[in-house]
Amino acid sequence: MTSGTATSEARATTAPPGKEVRVTGIGPRLVERRRAAWERWYGPVASARWVSALWHSLAWLVFGAGFVGAIVFVSSGLSESPGNVLLVLAAGSRLSAYIGATVGEIGFLRGIWMDGSQRMAWLEDYAAQLEEDADVPVPAELKDGIRLEGVSFAYPGTDRLVLQDVDLHLEAGSVVAIVGENGAGKTTLVKLLSRLYKPTKGRILADGADLARMPAADWRSRLAGAFQDFFRFEFKALQSVGVGDAARVEERPAVETAVDRAGADDVVEHLVAGLDTQLGPSWPEGVEVSFGQWQKLALARGFMRDQPLLLILDEPTAALDAETEHALFERYAETARGGRGESAPAGRITVLVSHRFSTVRMADVIVVMDGARVVEVGAHEDLMARGGTYAELYEIQARAYRQKASAVSG
Ligand SMILES: Nc1ncnc2c1ncn2[C@@H]1O[C@H](COP(=O)(O)OP(=O)(O)OP(=O)(O)O)[C@@H](O)[C@H]1O
Ligand SMILES: [Mg+2]
Q1: How far, in Å, are 199, 210, 259 from residue 302 at the CA level?
Q2: 326-365 pLDDT tens trace
Q3: Which of 19, 229, 264, 315 pairs as cysteine with 300 (C-beta 3.0–4.6 A)?
Q4: Pocket of ligand 1, candidates 159, 186, 353: which has the most ligand atoms within 8 Å of its Cβ, to mutate?
Q5: Contact residues of ligand 1, CB 6 A cut-off
């Protein structure tokens, strides 16, 4: 750890890990660790700055005294030569330049303060507003499922609807896949389901209760999963996975179970000290693993919670090859349906987002999105029989795959 950037990256204080930080509730622990690291590294810098400020003040004192003395000397009439008058003028202009520069610096600092603090204030207001009227408890289990009724959404500060009139029923206990081109609104939909935002219009109901009325932290504590823009928590492997459930971050058996659920055993086996391996090149003894391996660890983190109501997998396997993704999602779907020896989940809904149709077809229901709208909903066979967008895209991908396979074998 040598730089401030490395510190903030390793402490997850940048924007990308925001979703995971909030869903897992690890925030306070990170703040604590970041503060400790900051104090450790910033201490020497701060004291150097104090010494420098002291010298600056002394210099200004000498300069000020000299200038005042010069003015007194000239105006007293003891020395009225033009040279001396010029000297005082030059010194005066220098002084005014100094003052100008100082005022400029203060303005610059004020700008940073105002800009930064205003954004912060906006964010705090938005978060507080998410908690307003949060008086409905989160259901212990789902019987009906989650319903979206006429949901439209524009990101705060923008007018463009990135979701438009979405009506959907995600049945309790089902595996739902979402497909659609880049920017169609898949991740946005997932963010709304995670209660990171409220719909601009319409409602999301969990077993009939409005999600917007449930305390955000309570709802998120019943979520699990992994996101497209996962974060590399540069902790020991044990903690890097464990933070998926803040309360059990150091619990080895829970972490081992999560690694098994995610199918990430192969990654842990290859680490020099298994779960005790320090991850991340920012640390002197840290081990760097491949992007795909990071991604598998992020997946394991997503499987830390035992009984989530909603398991979200938003392209968490994009860095893995199609066969691995297929095998992993099959494993997750099997667990979701009560297989693999786990106790039957209480109506848990699994939402998976993928661009690979070979993976998507295994879902109970496929939601096809196009330009902020849901255009088709149904099982693979139904959608193929319909011959619409899904069938078309499926065929294109299948053809490309067949061509690649024949090129490899030929
Ligand atoms: N934080 C944000 N602020 C404003 N607009 C955003 C924000 N995040 C996403 N958008 C916009 O919302 C639209 C939908 O984005 P979203 O990330 O939901 O797409 P996606 O279907 O998940 O795409 P991909 O397949 O690339 O992951 C895009 O047009 C995007 O530019
Ligand atoms: Mg996305």
Answers
A1: 25, 25, 9
A2: 888 888 888 777 766 666 557 899 999 998 888 899 999 9
A3: 264
A4: 186
A5: 155, 158, 162, 180, 182-188, 228
Q: Strand ranges (DSSP E) for 172-256?
A: 175-180, 201-206, 209-210, 223-226
Give the C-alpha separation, 368 to 176, whole Å: 11
Residue nearest to atom 5 of ligand 1 (CA): 155
Q: C-alpha 171: how far from its chain's center? A: 27
Q: At what angle do helices 27-75 and 82-131 cross, to 10 degrees?
A: 160
How many CB atoms within 10 Å of residue 217?
Answer: 16
Residue-by-residue DSSP string for 123-175: HHHHHHHHHTT--SPPPSS-SSEEEEEEEEE--TT----SEEEEEEEEETT-E
Helix axes 252-262, 322-336, angle to 10 degrees: 120
| Closest residue by CA, ligand 1 atom 29 | 183
pLDDT digits (tens, 9 = 90+) for 198-224: 999 999 999 999 999 999 989 999 999
The Cβ of residue 157 has, within 10 Å, a number of other Cβ atoms equal to: 7
Is the distance from CB of 228 to CB of 188 less than 8 angstroms? no
Alpha helices in 228-363 (DSSP H): 237-242, 252-262, 265-270, 291-302, 322-336, 357-360
Output b/e per residue, 361-384; b: 16+ Cβ within 10 A.
Answer: bbbbbbbbbeebbbebbbebeebe
Write down the pLDDT at residue 345: 59
Contact 25, 248 (CB under 8 A): no
Which of 350, 383, 387, 386 lies closest to 366 in space, CA to CA? Answer: 383
- What end-to-end distance do the CA atoms of the chain give, in Å? 50
Answer positive or negative: Cα dihedral of 129, 203, 245, 319: negative
pLDDT category of residue 3 using cuts at 50, 70 and 90: very low
**For residues 388 and 152, what is the distance between their CA atoms, to the nearest angstrom?**
24
Q: Is 195 exposed, middle or buried (0-12, 13-18, 19+ CB in 10 A)?
A: buried
